[in-house]
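Title: Prediction job returns without error message
Component: structure pipeline
Severity: low
Priority: P3
Assignee: unassigned

Description:
Job completed but the reporter wants confirmation the result is attached to the right record. Sequence as submitted:
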Amino acid sequence: MQQRILLVDDERDFAQGLARLISAGFPDAECVLAESSAEALEQLGGGEIGLMLTDLRMPGLDGQDLLRQALAADPNLTVIMLTGHGSVEVAVAALKAGAYDFLTKPVDQGELFRAVGKGLDRVRLLGENRALRELTRRPELDRSLIGSSPPMQRLKEAIAAVAASDYTVLVRGESGTGKELVAANIHRLSPRAARPFVTVNCPAIPEHLLESELFGHVKGAFTGADKGRRGLFVAASGGSILLDEIGDIPMTVQTKLLRVLQEHEVRPVGSSDTVKVDVRILATTNQNLEARISSGQFRQDLFYRLNVLAVTPPPLRDRREDIPL
């Protein structure tokens, strides 16, 4: 999952310059800006931020008070303090209050990269530790996945293996083989299990509404759009979205779905702005997507993006020992 860094400074130009430097050195991280402690606490309340760089001297609630409140809400938050008034005493006080590191303005690029790199390493390590703790107490496979035949044992092993990663999964198989149940168990056993699991039955949604359902729309985007609506990708933020029978989606939606996979963002219908999303995509199909690619009905680049990991539940005829007598 993409790491998010919160930059808190009442000098917006400085914060923007800092964001550019960090983005250049750490292209996989996303920088979020806040101009006050109140705005920072609001951003932190939304979760998904592991590293914060904050100025020490700010109007209103200063950096040390922000540090205390932020760590009280999330003891695992990694905080780097910034100040133009550096001194040993100030640095020691910040570190004693729970700061991970301390930088003095003007910030040296080398020191910045060192501190941010170590901070992101700590965030990753804490995340891995949480994931391991969750794995030790995570639920077993859903009992609806019945059967003890070798094909079913291999399926259960495959589910457990792909669940541990965060890659896109394509579940391929005939109708009636339990593809949706397989996808649900992948989410259930994943580090995202406590977050939303949103299922989209692609063939059941009219073509002219599917784009709005997935990506949302703004007020007035089309006739009848009396108010804006967030899409199902935003609703699934932090969790997983299941695109059931993805082989049936129209080419226009395929193009926009490819953008989500590449850029991790959606553009609501009628809007010129994009919205960042952190969602694991699971998809199912009972169709031969390679044949649909050859006939021009499915994008090859989208197929490669979806088929990073593949799971194929076996039909009952291939596991006759699971049929009760």
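Comment from assignee: result matches the submitted record. The first helix runs from residue 12 to 25.
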